[in-house]
Design goal:
The structure holds two protein chains of two kinds. Chain A is of the alpha/beta class. Chain A has eight helices and five strands, in the order αααβααβαβαβαβ. The radius of gyration of chain A is 17 Å and the shape is globular. The longest helix of chain B has 14 residues. Classes of the chains: A alpha/beta, B alpha/beta.
């Protein structure tokens, strides 16, 4: 088996969708830090289906880092959750797509986000709720940014999920080194201190992402740190 | 009221597999048996009130009905953005149940007091129901009713209680009829109001549910003068009463807890007096307000 570790081509239809959201800029869309993580999740990892978007047994993907959702909308359109023509009117007066996603307006969006530090704590509740109802198949994924980890609410969630072994929860940290004071020792270490299983991958490498994201650790929540170019140096 | 809450909620967890309880250490000892009986649906997150409310939002997103409990300042004031975003903005509800109220913890100081909780809830989406029971007998029915739907509910429990409970006082319940003015007492303010109005020619109406406010009931019993007495921030319901009576000339005086940080300890009765909510002060204010009619 040949494993490609160089950057695989992103599908043309995804990039076309992205250009519709961002207004056809040549460079900016490809530099979006979350683009590859989102695509690999929806293309290869998540058990979600636009025709059964409310299926109780679906995986849950929570985009906590709600700002700059262009890549998220492009992925949702490419995978059939929303019509492509919704992409042409970002944040217009009649648009369902704003600069922060609203779950009440957009099919397939599990949480409304924007204010940082809410997605991971909500994901803990979602994981507990699924477990309490005996729903053992669904897995909860939440995407946060490295700078977003500055918000203290995340650390309440990290400590609690680790202490209680919430193993139906995976956090993906897209790390573009934009936290003002950094994470000395590394982001994975911060989670591991509370008992999480941590791995670090190249956030642009689809094979590495596809290998790391589905890994489960019985009795432990997981974190995958997806490193991309430092913010401002894309 | 807290004991009634714990008994009723424990029974709800037994009866209804959709219900869950989330706490942040407060009342953990009292809930110990409930926690053992329902390890999956009784969740103590430790001293993490932001997480407590966010977890409730996540539980509700999976279809459960969470009851969330702490001291009022930690549940509402501290976790306000989580209530706004992780419940309201997600389009899900929960049943928030606080203890401590405005000055039950008079000896603990300002950090343990939340006179502004109902005003904060009032700043949210209008779908909220707010219960401010004045007697333990009123509590079980309110908690059980909240399990039958998914809308947001705030239940404000207090150690200050009236002599008599009126479980059916969801709308305004008229306890006395008179001509000079209508005095509306919310929750634990009823006993001070009854004492203050003894022998005066006024209507006294009571409710344990200020949201939604019984505006139709108010219009039915009110002439042109309303004295509103609430156990939380003064004026919290003034907007609602003014709107209800917008089409008729009227006068309104709204009494409640003042905005002053007293920086004093003492008993709840002391705080009631310092905020001008004891029977003597209430009678004096009513006399000035209703004047020669009395």
């Amino acid at each position: 088996m040949t494993v490609t570790t160089t950057r695989p081509a992103r599908p043309p239809q995804l990039m076309a969708a992205l250009r519709r959201v961002t207004g056809d800029e040549k460079h900016a869309p490809a530099a979006i830090s979350t683009l590859d993580v989102l695509w690999v999740l929806y293309d290869r990892v998540l058990r979600v289906d636009p025709d059964r978007a409310d299926d109780p047994d679906r995986d849950r993907f929570l985009l906590s880092k709600g700002h700059g959702p262009a890549a998220f909308y492009a992925v949702l359109a490419t995978t059939g959750f929303i019509p492509l023509d919704w992409l042409d009117d970002l944040a217009g007066p009649d648009s369902r797509l704003g600069h922060h996603p609203d779950r009440m307006l957009v099919p397939g969006v599990e949480i409304s986000s924007g204010s940082l530090g809410h997605g991971l704590p909500i994901a803990v509740g979602t994981a507990l709720g699924l477990r309490a109802q005996g729903l053992t198949r669904p897995h909860v994924y939440v995407l946060v940014g490295d700078a977003e980890l500055d918000e203290g609410s995340n650390h309440e969630a990290i400590a609690y999920a680790g202490a209680t072994g919430l193993d139906n929860l995976t956090v993906v940290v897209v790390d573009n080194q934009s936290a003002t004071h950094g994470w000395p020792g590394g982001i994975g270490v911060r989670f591991a201190a509370n008992g999480w299983a941590a791995s670090t991958v190249d956030g642009r490498d689809h094979e590495e992402l596809a290998a790391a994201l589905p890994v489960r650790w019985p009795g432990r929540p997981s974190v995958v740190v997806a490193r991309v170019e430092p913010y401002g140096q894309e | 009221m807290r004991d009634t809450f714990i008994r009723t909620t424990g029974a709800l967890l037994d009866d209804d597999p959709r219900t869950a309880v989330v706490i942040a250490d407060i009342s953990a000892a009292q809930f110990a048996a409930v926690a053992r009986a329902h390890p999956d649906r009784f969740i103590n997150v430790g001293i993490r009130e932001q997480l407590m409310v966010s977890v409730a939002g996540g539980l509700a997103l999976t279809g459960l009905r969470p009851y969330v409990h702490s001291y009022a300042p930690f549940l509402v004031d501290r976790a306000y953005e989580q209530i706004k975003l992780d419940l309201d903005h997600q389009g899900v509800g929960a049943v928030l149940v606080s203890i401590g109220a405005s000055y039950d913890a008079s000896e603990e100081g300002r950090t343990h007091q939340s006179p502004g909780d109902v005003a904060l809830i009032d700043s949210l989406d209008g779908a909220w129901t707010v219960h401010v029971p004045g007697h333990p007998d009123e509590v079980p029915r309110l908690l059980r009713a909240a399990a039958t739907h998914d809308d947001p509910v705030y239940v404000r429990l207090s150690s200050q209680t009236n002599t008599t409970g009126y479980p059916d006082a969801t709308g305004l319940r008229v306890l006395r009829r008179g001509r000079a003015a209508t005095v509306v007492a919310v929750g634990p303010m009823l006993d001070p109001v009854l004492a203050a109005t003894e022998g005066l020619d006024v209507t006294v109406a009571y409710t344990h549910t200020p949201r939604p406010f019984d505006t139709a009931g108010l219009r039915a019993v009110t002439g042109d003068a309303v004295l509103l007495v609430e156990p939380y921030l003064a004026g919290t319901s003034a907007r609602v009463v003014a709107d209800a009576l917008a089409d008729r000339p009227h006068r309104l005086l709204s009494l409640g807890v003042t905005r002053t940080d007293l920086r004093r300890y003492g008993t709840p009765a002391d705080h009631q007096r310092w905020h001008g909510l004891d029977p003597v002060a209430l009678r004096q204010k009513l006399t000035e307000f209703a004047g020669p009619r009395l």
